[in-house]
Amino acid sequence: LNDTQHQRVCANDKTHIEKASHTWDGGKITTAATCVKDGVKTYTCTVCQATKTEAVKATGHTAVIDKAVAATCTAAGLTEGSHCSVCNAVLVKQEVIKATGHTAVTDKAVAATCTVAGLTEGSHCSVCNEVLVKQEVIKATGHTAVTDAAVAATCTKDGLTEGSHCAVCNEVLVKQEVIKATGHTAVTDKAVAATCTADGLTEGSHCSVCNEVLVKQEVVKTGGHQWSKGETVKQPTCVDAGELVFVCTVCNEKRSELLPATGLHTFGNWEISLPAAPGVAGTIFRTCAVCGHTEYGTLDPLPVTYAIGDADGDGELTSADARLALRASVGLTEKGDLEKDSAGYLACDVDHDGEVTSGDARLILRASVGLEKLS
Question: 358-368 and 319-329 helices cross at what angle (nearest 10)?
Answer without folding.
Answer: 180
